[in-house]
Amino acid sequence: MVAASVAALRQTVGGWRRQGLRVALVPTMGALHEGHLSLMTLALERADRCVVSIFVNPTQFGPNEDLDKYPRQLARDLDLLAGAGVHLAFTPSPSEMYPEGFATTVRLGGPALGLETDFRPTFFDGVATVVAKLLLQTLPDCAIFGEKDYQQLCVIRQLARDLDIPVEIIGAPTIRDTSGLALSSRNAYLDAVQMVVARRLNAVLVEAAAALAGGDGPDSILVRAKRDLIGAGFRSVDYVEAREALALGPWRGGVEGRLLAAAWLGNTRLIDNVPIPARS
Known about the structure:
The protein is of the alpha/beta class. The chain is built from 10 helices and 9 strands. The chain has helices spanning 6-18, 34-46, 74-84, 94-97, 116-119, 123-138, 150-162, 192-198, 200-213, 218-232; strands at residues 2-3, 23-28, 49-54, 88-90, 142-146, 168-172, 236-244, 257-265, 268-276. The strands form 2 sheets. The protein has a 6-stranded parallel sheet, sandwiched between helices. The longest helix is centred in the middle third of the chain and has 16 residues, at 123-138. The mean pLDDT is 94.
C-alpha cells in the first residue's frame, strides 16, 4: 500500500489504531539497501504495522551538496518494501511536506552541536524539521533509526524528548559488508578502487577506539587516526572525534564513548562511528 499525502497516511494509520495495533515508522530517503531492510525487520519485531517513508528531504542539503544527484529509485524501493513485509510506504512530494507558505524550522542545541554541524551548519535544522513532521504525521508508537548516523540518532532522541512527542526512538545496529564498510546509499558513488579505500575507514576507527579504551593519550590517537585515513587514500578528513555516548559531550575516558568520523573519498563524503568501551 502506498500513500502520497498526509491525509491518506493518517487515514490508514488511524484505521490500524482503531484496531488496537502498534505502529512503527522507518524514515528513509530511499535508494534502499540491506541496512534499511534491517531497520524494517526490527520495526516488524517491535510493532504490528510498519510504515516506511521515502522522501529526499531538500532542507537538509546545503548549497553545493548532492541533492540533485542523490539516488532516486522509487519503483525498485517499493518492490523491496513489499518483499520485506512493510504495510505502508509514505511517498510525499516536496510540496506535500513543505507547502506554499511553510515557515517553521526546528532548531536544536545539545547533541546537534559540533561534528556534522561544524561542516554542514544547517543540516540538523533540516533533519529535525522533517523528522518532527514525520513523527507528528504518523504518530507511531516507535520509530527506528540506524546507528550509522549516530549523531542524528542522538539528535532525534533529544528532539522527541524536548518536544514531548510520544514515541519510542529505537537505534538499530549498523549493517556492514564483509570488510566492515557501513552500508550507505552514497556508496553507489564509489568506483571499485575507491571501495577498497573506503573499507579502511572502519578498520582505522576500530584500531583507534581500542587504543582509547586502553588508556592511551586521546589527542595523539585522534591525530594518528586522521593521518592513517589520509595514508589509506582519503582526500581529506572533516573530523575524527571521541564523544560521550549518550549526549555527545566531550569524552574524558572511563565511560562508554563513541568515536565518530567523516572523511572525503574523491567527491563522496563518508561517515562512520564505533563504540569506545568503558575502561574497567
